[in-house]
Write a sequence for this structure.
């Protein structure tokens, strides 16, 4: 357990104090009774209360550590993300040519409280003119669709165009020119007027020394702008002019007022800290509650192991009883033989471990009938409960049919074991069906592709 070793020992001790001092064990927790029953089966012979306490303190420790780690990471992300690139005098620093362009999410706040958000790409300082690359003929055919962005057709442009220098999948640089910058700027910003405006966009495409030009015709449809949209458009123009004024400067002066109204700018930073904190809370809760399922799965696994040993135990008991041993001697002999085998390096087997506990109880003075009953209850398996009933009834009534009952029970248990094995094999075959189909597809492809290639298909 965590409390006995590992770097979490300190947290384990703290949670143990909290668990006891704050009386956390009194808080009703769904499934506590089931957890206690599972722990009794997994740790027979140990103090039940100590097992339950250790189990819940371990879960609380893991959840607390996850939560603390999440809080620390959230705080770190929060403060690191609050680094401002925009200074108090409203200057934006450009990146160097090696760093490339910088993306800013900024919000301008007017004196009257109106706020406008922008995605501002600040281009790097210009140290030298970049070489443009060539655009292949296929790119020229696809270009009208590539620049549409959110628009449906070149004949109905209602949103800004994507007039970029580069496009994914093509090794080129494109220099855009517009014959009507009042309607479409060279960066793709559109300015709808009172009427539809046809615009001819010229794209200069370069690849080494080979230069081509192509044109794209678009139509900017008229749009009735709200006062807020017009104001945002003016702000966007001011931001663009601020970038173009001195491209070699290390910083850009953001506009401080528009039409006599002052503007204050701040960068929009995504709040990842709260998302991390929420994720940590969910993970901590999942660790706390889903561990109960893991415990229950371990108990079920133990039961399956005990059922597999049941026919063998019946056969050994029957053999010793036929040899003339008493029920007590036969039961203890089976357990003691297992103990000797385990000391010689044999594997641990759950059903025999339960028999060892019952044998020790008998040697310590516990009534034989009570030891058999405890043995059946601890396993929680129907077959062993039935076996303990046979042994207890024989002890109370001196039944002469015990040997016959054990033989019949052994035959039934062996048949049940065969049925379970057959069921498991069928389940395994079902699980292997998908991988086998996938392998078959791969083999067919490996065979068919060379065959079609040789046939010239």
């Amino acid at each position: 357990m965590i409390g006995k070793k590992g770097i979490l020992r300190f947290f384990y001790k703290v949670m143990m104090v909290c668990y006891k001092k704050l009386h956390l064990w009194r808080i009703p927790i769904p499934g506590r009774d089931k957890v206690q029953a599972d722990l009794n089966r997994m740790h027979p012979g140990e103090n039940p209360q100590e097992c339950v306490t250790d189990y819940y303190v371990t879960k609380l420790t893991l959840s607390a550590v996850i939560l603390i780690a999440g809080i620390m990471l959230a705080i770190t992300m929060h403060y690191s993300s609050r680094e401002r690139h925009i200074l108090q005098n409203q200057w934006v620093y450009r990146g160097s040519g090696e760093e490339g362009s910088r993306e800013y999410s900024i919000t301008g706040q007017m004196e009257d409280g109106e706020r406008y958000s922008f995605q501002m790409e600040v281009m790097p300082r210009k140290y030298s003119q970049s070489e443009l690359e060539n655009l292949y003929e296929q790119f020229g055919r696809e270009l009208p669709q590539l620049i549409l962005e959110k628009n449906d057709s070149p004949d109905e442009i209602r949103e800004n165009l994507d007039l970029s220098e580069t496009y994914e999948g093509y090794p080129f640089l494109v220099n855009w020119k517009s014959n009507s910058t009042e309607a479409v700027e060279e960066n793709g910003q559109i300015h709808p007027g009172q009427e539809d405006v046809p615009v001819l966009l010229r794209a200069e495409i370069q690849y080494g020394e080979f230069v081509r030009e192509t044109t794209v015709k678009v139509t900017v449809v008229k749009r009735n702008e709200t006062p807020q949209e017009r104001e945002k458009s003016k702000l966007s123009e001011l931001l663009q002019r601020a970038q173009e004024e001195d491209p070699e400067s290390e910083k850009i002066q953001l506009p401080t007022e528009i039409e006599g109204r002052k503007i204050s700018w701040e960068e929009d930073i995504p709040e990842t800290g709260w998302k991390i904190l929420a994720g940590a809370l969910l993970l901590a809760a999942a660790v706390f509650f889903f561990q109960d399922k893991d415990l229950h799965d371990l108990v079920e696994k133990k039961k399956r192991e005990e059922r597999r040993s049941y026919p063998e135990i019946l056969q050994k008991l029957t053999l010793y009883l036929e040899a003339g041993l008493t029920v007590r001697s036969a039961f203890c002999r089976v357990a003691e033989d297992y103990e000797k085998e385990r000391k010689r390096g044999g594997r641990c087997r759950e059903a025999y471990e339960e028999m060892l506990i019952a044998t020790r109880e008998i040697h310590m003075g516990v009534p034989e009938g009570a030891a058999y009953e405890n043995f059946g209850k601890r396993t929680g398996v129907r077959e062993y409960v039935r076996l303990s009933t046979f042994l207890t009834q024989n002890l109370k009534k001196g039944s002469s049919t015990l040997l016959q009952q054990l033989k019949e029970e052994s035959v039934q248990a062996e048949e049940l074991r065969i049925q379970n094995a057959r069921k498991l094999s069928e389940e395994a075959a079902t699980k292997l069906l998908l991988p086998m189909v996938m392998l078959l597809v791969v083999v067919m492809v490996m065979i068919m592709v060379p065959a079609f290639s040789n046939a010239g298909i």
